[in-house]
Amino acid sequence: MNKTLKVISLLLTYPTEELQAASGDLIAALEDEKALGDRRRGLLTAVIKDIAADDLYDVQERYVLLFDRTRTLSLHLFEHVHGESRDRGQAMVDLMATYEANGFEVDTKELPDYLPMFLEYLSLLPQEEAAELIGQTAHILTALKERLKKRKSIYCNVFAVLESLALGKPDRSLVRSLLGIPEDDPTDLEALDKIWEEEVVTFGGNAGENSCGPDRLQRQIRAAARKPADPSAPSAQATH
């Protein structure tokens, strides 16, 4: 499951020319995950091919409209649970402490609840522990899957696979509660401006320029293609 989580982490990041060029490596990494199964491998392969085949600017625009300008599709997990309450801040502090306690070094401008970052951390854990932590977010992942499915987005495949990797089933009442939140209009620029007026908090030192740039992406792609380390290891370090 280690490689699968690394690949999914990459697929949920902002599409780049480098990501498109690495499609073959990502598909090969999934082929190495024998336990993944044909169905789940097929769902993820379809997303990889879709991102690689389309015009880069079109793929990027689609991503921004979905995940950056639609709050109900936010890739920040605690956004769906805590909104802008104080509880969200404390939850992020706790999550950052968990990362640091397990040797996962966060050196990026992204908040710790950013789903691709969370998945990269999980890819370093033993499979059962990773599956349990995915299960704790399963209601969010299921709600995102259903919203994306409603929009006929290929990205719903990613969340269907994540849902299947979780230990346990999502709480249906929590899923209904999340799906009951009205959908955003990504073309409402006034509402978007209000979101960006909120101050961005940086969790992690030295989050300098290009901290999420091509060098970091290339390291992730190489890591996804490599055979994972001993799954019994409780932690490892990843530099962002």
What does the model show?
The chain has 14 helices and no strands. With 240 residues, it is mainly α. The chain has one domain (2-224). The radius of gyration is 17 Å and the shape is globular. The two termini are 21 Å apart.
Helix and strand layout, with pairings?
Layout: H1 2-11, H2 17-21, H3 23-31, H4 38-53, H5 56-68, H6 77-82, H7 86-101, H8 115-122, H9 127-136, H10 138-150, H11 156-165, H12 172-179, H13 189-197, H14 214-225
Brief descriptors of the model:
disordered C terminus
In DSSP terms (H or I, runs of 4 or more residues), the helix count works out at: 14
Quote the average pLDDT.
Answer: 78
The SS-based structural class is mainly alpha
The tally of strands reads 0
Beta-strand percentage?
Answer: under 5%
Could you state the oligomeric state of the chains shown? single chain
Query: What is the percent of helical residues?
Result: 55-70%
Secondary-structure element order, N to C = HHHHHHHHHHHHHH
Characterize the main sheet. Answer: none
Q: Between the first and last Cα atoms, what is the distance in angstroms?
A: 21 Å
Backbone CA Rg = 17 Å
Low-confidence stretches: 199-240
Shape: globular
The domain tally reads 1
